[in-house]
Amino acid sequence: MQKTKFKFLTVFLFIFLGTSFLWAAGQVEQTENPLPADILDWVPVTITDTAGNEITIQHPLKRIVVAYYGCAEVMRSLDAAGRIVGVGKTISDRPDYFPQLSKLPSTGKTTFNEAELILDLSPDAVIIGTGSRNSETRLKLLAVDPELVIIQMAFYKPEYHESEVRMLGEILDKTDKAESYLNFYDSVLESISSKVDMISLADRPGVYLESTQDYKTGAPGSSWHPKILAAGGFNVYGDEQVSLPKVSAESVVEKNPDIIIKVSGWNMAGFGGYGVNSYDAMVAEKKIIEERPAWNNIKAVQNNQVWIMYNDILGGPGYFIGLAYLAKIIDPDLFRDFDPRSIHQEYLTRFQKLDFDLNNRGVFVYPGL
Questions:
Q1: Cβ-contact 127, 53 below 8 angstroms
Q2: Are residues 245 and 298 in the same domain?
Q3: What pLDDT, in 10s, does the model give residues 300-322?
């Protein structure tokens, strides 16, 4: 009787424990959060960015912190702005151009002090600019988190623009949008080059382009130099050995350019842009340049060929829009039937998805074209 009772208890205990184990296992399976389908689709891909860094990313990127406004502008052209979860100061400070993105969490200037702000957003990648300062920023961020994926791209340099847009299209799985944008980009450049390529350098007007810093210009190696050439001009400082030389007022008089372009607007309140409707600041800047000592002897000043241009349309990723304006300035007869404003408007409406009427808002070039 005792043996029978013992066997019964043993079998009961075995069944009870087995059932409990299966029930518990079922509970774990039911309460465990499955990975989202899009994460299950991620594939590791290795790329080499513009700065030469070899990086392995999880493709396609879904959560991105963008420190540089140029990348945000291109991502908007690729219908991928929704992937951005945090932005740098150059975006948060441009609410007129980035009405939605400027409201996202700001990571400041993406320096070492803001590393924790970036990490709190749990990004798949951080995209910053190129150049020595950004490379230093990259090293500082990696010192905080060696696993952080950091990609460096410029977008404002003509020699890299197409390859960078295609790379961005690849890592965002937006290759079709990238090609659509590049078709527009190429068509604008072709409409300019088809005219200016027929003009020899000797027959082109001399251009002195001054950056937002007084007397600082662009020579070979800078992004300004190829833009002057592409628009049909001859860079009067095209023989300088330093890419961004600071020249003297006297040397500009000696160069005697036919056209002077002053770039304005970078961190300069009121000097043009999408949120400005008054030309007052540009008018004042033009007068200051024309009244520099001895500059009344320069052909550009004598012939009213001093122009003020808003930085972002010539110095940013939409630089080809600035080229359209610049080409019209350099040779208005050659580009008599060319309409930079309509190109600019199409870019804003079709690619930047902005409800922005250039006939009513914005200041970009003075005197007006």
A1: no
A2: yes
A3: 999 999 999 999 999 889 999 99
